[in-house]
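As agreed, record passed on underneath.
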Amino acid sequence: MADDSPADRPTTATPAPTDGAAATRTNGTAAANKVDVPRGVWLQCPACQATVFQKALEENMHVCPECGYHHRIAARVRIAQLVDPDSFEEFLPDLTSTDPLKFKERLTYKERIREVQAKTGEAEAVVVGKAFIRGRPVILAAMDPFLIMASKGAVVGEKITAGLERATDENIPFVVVTASGGARMQEGMISLVQMAKTSSAVARLDDAGGLYIVVMTDPTTAGVAASFASLGDIHLAEPGAMIGFAGPRVIENTIRAKLPEGFQSAEFALQHGFVDRIVHRHNLRTEIARIIDYAGK
């Protein structure tokens, strides 16, 4: 490239490029420098298509500042948003899935588990522990939609059950934040029996007079929706969350009929009595604490 010293710069403007390429010229010289935007700085909201500054989104609890769309968040982020600082004490952190069916698709099941564990930093699709929410002791379980879509395998069932049993033993509320695509097909029938296992644990908590609060986030579907996510004393939901058993497209293809507008949204579930209240993410901590106080727990 020629030296761009003042003596070497042309004194007259050069013709515009004829190849149609965009070019910016200063004193007749093309500006070759291109500004690179670092990855992860900006993102596009899937709801309103607005370009949002990543840091602004995080500061707004991962809620779009333009339209209020509630983005999916990891289990640890959810826990940090809900509990009092430094109050979360996790249990059963090292439980991981086995491969009972020797399942293989593009990868073996063991390879897939290792892959998502490395990507998310989590051993499994739910994190369970004891914590305080505005000073109220609870057992909290948060599902992680980024680990095989928080599908419910044997470990998820075991950790949810263990949390319910500890809440029963200690006579404190159990709070679960659901976000799941349902059963984990790689574990077959073992995944399906977790519906009965977790439901039985909910029944024991209820028999003991315990309080069970479910927070449904996007998505809460299939075997999770059909078991422990539907058995709470109180059901809260984030705005716009998908809640239901099968997806709308599957249902439409099955019954050969057009579904109502907004079907399987949190708002539709509220209208039809499946959800007790829709709560903005900013208000969840306060709302959970208020329910605990109201229930005398």
Q: What stands out?
A: The domain at 73-294 is CATH 3.90.226.10 (2-enoyl-CoA Hydratase; Chain A, domain 1). Confidence is low (pLDDT under 50) at residues 1-32. The first strand starts at residue 25 and ends at 26. The radius of gyration is 25 Å.
